[in-house]
Each structure stands twice: as C-alpha cells, then as structure tokens.
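#struct-help
A.M.: can someone run this one for me? Single chain, 486 residues.
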Amino acid sequence: MNHQSKAFIHNDFLLLNKTARHLYHEYASRQPILDFHCHLPVKDIADDRRFNNLAEIWLEGDHYKWRAMRANGVPERYCMGDASPYDKFMAWARTVPYTLRNPLYHWTHLELKRYFDIDDLLDETTGPAIWDRTSAALQHDQLTAHGILRRFDVKAVCTSDDPTDSLEEHKKIARSGLATKVYPTFRPDKALQTADVPAFNAWVDRLGASANVEIARLDDYLEALRQRHGHFHANGCRLSDHGLNYCYATFATENEAHSTFAKLRSGHSVSDSEADHFGGYMMLFFGRLDAKKGWTKQLHLGAYRNVNLTMLQSHGRDTGFDSIGDWRHAERLGAYLGHLEHEGSLPKMILYNVNPSDNYVFATMIGNFQDGTVPGKIQFGSGWWFLDQKEAMEWQLNALSNTGLLSRFIGMATDSRSFMSYPRHEYFRRVLCNLIGADVENGLLPDNEGLIARLITDLCFTNAADYFALPLGKVDKSMLAPLTKD
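D.P.: on it. Structure tokens below:
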C-alpha cells in the first residue's frame, strides 16, 4: 500500500476519468459561489469575526461532528460540554480515523487543505501540530469571516432569519462595503409550532413587538407577519424557507383558523387536527406573500427532528439528535402545490428531500407544476443533510436527470453553520464533473465540449444566478457566456 507518497486531497480528487478532470479544472473550479441557503451566524459576518482556533471555526455548532464523536464513545463534555477548546479539538482528532467512508473524512481533509494547505491526515498524533499551525494561520485577515468569503469568491450569502429578527446585523453588513452580498431569508417556522402553547405565545408577543402590532386576533397576527415580510423585502430578502416534516394538505377555513388562533392566544391546547389545519392555512398565507413579492420559497421536508427527548431537554434543538423521517409526501406535496397553483399564487419553489426513497416522488412532482413562465420554476433541491454526500448527490442528480431537466438545476446549497464549509461546493462540483465525464466517455452523452461545458457552468453558478436574480456585485462574465467550442 502507498504510504502517503501522494497527498490524499490532490488536484484530481474524486475525478476518476480524463473528461471529468478536464471539465472540473477548465470550467467548474473557476466558477464563483452563490450560497443561497445557509445558517451562518449573521453577527459573525457583521463583526468580521476573527476565529482563535479550530474549535471555534470548526467544532462550534457542528452537530455532524458531535454526532460522530458520540458514536465513537467521546463523552459529552468534549462535544457541547465544558472541556477546553484544545481538548475538544483533540477529541475530534482522535475520532477522525474512525470516520473512514463517512463524508466527514473527505470534508475534514478537504477543508484542512483549502484553508490551511495542510496535507497531513488528522489523527491523535498529527493533531497538536495541526492545532498550532491553524491557530497561527487564523490570525491572518484572509481567514476572518470576510476574508473567507473573499477567498472562496462567494458572490452572495442568504442566511436564515426569524421574522422577529431586527435585521440590524444585515444593515451593518450592507454599510460595511463587503463585496459579498449578504441577504436575509424569511424562516417563519415558529409561526406554525403550536404544540407548546406558552412558547408559541411568547413568540407571537415578540412578533407583535417587532412589527409594532398588538396581536389579539388572527387578523393582527397576519398583519404583523405581512409587515415583517415587507421589512425583510426592503432589506434585500428574496427567499423564504420552511423546515417541515411534510407539507400540510388540509387547510382551515377562515372561521376555523380564527377559532384555533383564539384558543391558542387564550392559553389552551389545540387538537392535532386543529394544529394541522391551522398549519395548512398559514402555509397558504406564506405562499401568497412570497408569490406577490416574487420570492422563492424553500421547503426542507422529511427530517425527523429531536428524536432523543432527554437530550432535547438538556441540549436544545439542532444538536445532533435528528434522523431521516418516513412520511408519505406525494399526496401532501400535490395538495399544497396544487392549491396555490389553482388560485394563481404558486411562487418559485425549491423542494429539498432528506429520504432517498422519496427522490423520484420529488423529482416527478416538480414536473406537475412547471408553468412555462420561468425555466425550472419548481426545483428539486440538492442533496440535503444526510444526503449531502457523494453517493446521495449522484442519486439526486440521476433522479432529476431521468425525470426532468438537469440542465435547469440550480445546483448546490451549502446548508451549513460553518465558515469552513465552502469546499463543499468544490466537492459537489467534483462529483458532478465525474458523473458527467463518465457519461461522455461511455458514449451516453456527446463528446461536445461546448455543450457539456455549458451544462457544468450552468449547474455550478449561472442557473442559480439567473433563477434568484439577486444583485451579486461584480461577476466575471467571461466564464459564464455560452460556449460554442466543439
């Protein structure tokens, strides 16, 4: 066996045929990034945060790593507990060799290479030197929050923001002169979370305060949300996002919605049926708002969240205790999309699926609601969460190719809380080029460079730029023009 005579992350990593290598190096690698869905902390961007060490920039908030560490027998104090930053990092370093064949192994070493030019494999023996080297490098301006966005040629970032957020950090970023455009995304998940009545009412009170509306009745609630939606629009927002188990397929009447909201505001619980119908009513309301403003709606569907109730109580949400859900989506998706389409209120929409058994449901559902007004108006989004890895990226690309128009796909969504995640775009682009390159070499696609290179550049950047129509600042058009070379 080769004893590391060649770096693990090399120029042709994941590129297993000649055509793939040509497509990646000549076209894909030169495209900028449009990060249209992520969870980067807005304050870190506004403050141009300087990270002190890998524990801060790499482990802070990363439930993917915590999940792997727990599976490796690492005590909780080294994940979300009170261990020192260095000890947490070394616990991760000891875990990395056990992540072989998990995408974390690829991501870890790709990130070390791209941010710090480190070729060493991370483990317990290399960890101390890597800690020292990266801690020193993080003091340079090219690895602050702004420096990273410049370094990876990120043209725009769309964060995830609650309707009650003031957006003051976004305003600060807009005044900063940062070349990367940073826009909010309207994510009103808490508007539908009625199971915990005190928490729901506390959020409604915050919403009312943010909109300067006294919320007693449903009409007040809708007006406050409408005002916040408009405020987000005025601050550059052009996307909304919802994290749902599944689409709501039953919709309360006006009277039923008023009654349910009144019951909630009086502190009383509602039945599962009332909650479901109210959720459907609200999702139609949000769809109409987005359509009227010309926004794109994102639906992240199918995750079974917070499965471990003990850890939910002690750690809170988004801490690594979620899995793939097993709900039926076809009828529900069809009902929701169909209702909005029938009343002329269907916005552009991206459907993200987390259960691979549903890929063809999602891939074929989008074809039912393409209306000829916008290329790829309804999108089957990129592999998400547990499907954000090589094999599942290929599954998603193949399902879309076999049932729709891959050429109109808007490409990769980072969906990350970490400033270390931008090499995931490179990862997707390498997977894409390898897949398409193999098809060309196997005679399944024509060996026509202009045709194939245009496909690659469109899927890496151009389609997303056209689809969202966000102001992106200066973009080098030379690599985005139609290609005619044979």
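A.M.: thanks! The longest helix spans residues 272-293.
D.P.: also worth noting: Confidence is low (pLDDT under 50) at residues 481-486.
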